Amino acid sequence: MLDFFLLRRQRHQKKMMKYMRYVLNDHFVLVCLFLVGGLAFYYSNLLKQLSPDFPWSLPIVGIIWWLVLPFGRLATLVEPADMAFLLPKEKEMGGYLSRGLRHSLAWPFSIETFVCGALLPLVVLAKQVSFVHFFFFLVMLWCLKVGNLRIQRFACYQTTKKQTQQFMFLWFIVSGGIIFISLYSFAWLGTILALAAALGFILLTQEKDRLLDWSSMIERENMRLHRMYQFINLFTDVPEIEARVRRRKYLDGLLAKISFKQENTFLYLFARGALRGAIFGGLFFRLLIVGAVLIVSLADFRFVVGVSALFIYLIGFQMIPLYNQFDYIGATQLYPVAKKYKKAALQRLMAILLFAAAVIFSLFSLVHLSIFETLILFAVLLIEIGLFAWLYLPARIKKMEG
């Protein structure tokens, strides 16, 4: 079964790497570097302004570490057909699940390492300790995560639902207690307690000849993969995700404003796809909400301009695939509509959507900025929208068609 899991993992990783080529494209990486650099600069300036007696440093660190811990699900890589074909091998599935648990550690361990390192300066500021304590805190978080994944492994067996809920609640309370003990006393004490907690949960979650709950295990794995595919689907088409169309009756007034002319054929199609499609409509509204929340949380004019411009670009860039959204429909190939109208329709729709986003971002910026600064922000965003819709977008469309 060990070789079987390795084969499944290799196939899964190969599939994920194929999708990562689309997710980690040059534009997305550049935007992430810009965003991370800006946040790092903002965070470093914030640390310089905080005094050592700032009372909320340790509570903030403890709560964030505590909330990050549940992140990361057990990857079993099981498939619906396994319920029948792997049933004769059920007694050997314990080793298979343990291998899956070890495979599942990589991603949450990476996230916890990043979060622990990012928040350590607040701990150093509050307690006046050395950065060597980072390793004690990190091992503590890792051990607590092992306990969490062990409970998830236990949940794969029959008649464990009630116990799993009790263990998960106990783990959450114990983890919070250990984190705050380590922050307010000694870091090494938290590490020892976390090791003891991990060992305790390993002993408590022995399967003891229980039978696997195949249906529940397969359902959880499908849900885990579905969440991954939903994220990937923001960047490229994923066959595993079935696109849905939402009615959104409250937006009918916007579609009604498009006159029924031959040159507006693709404008109407693109507008319906953007407003009612789960992929593009959901993407537009999610980026709009995230951008607005970030703008409200920033008080520095330069950062507000940078974040606003960044999200205008992100919204526009992620909406570009709308150009080919209806190519699979044979009727669109038969329409007596010149190709120039198709490109003009996307440019017009993009300008309208980005203009609406610019208005919303400008209104939210009034929370911290003056009216004059907001007008400058709006002017900058209008210039960016013009450059994007009439310079960058035609070049991208030409590349897509070539």
UniProtKB/TrEMBL annotation:
The keyword Transmembrane applies. Keywords: Membrane, Transmembrane, Transmembrane helix. It holds the Pfam family EcsB. InterPro entries: EcsB_ABC. The chain crosses the membrane at residues 21-43, 63-85, 105-125, 131-151, 163-181, 187-205, 277-297, 303-323, 349-369, 375-393. The keyword Transmembrane helix applies. This is ABC transporter permease. It comes from Enterococcus xiangfangensis.
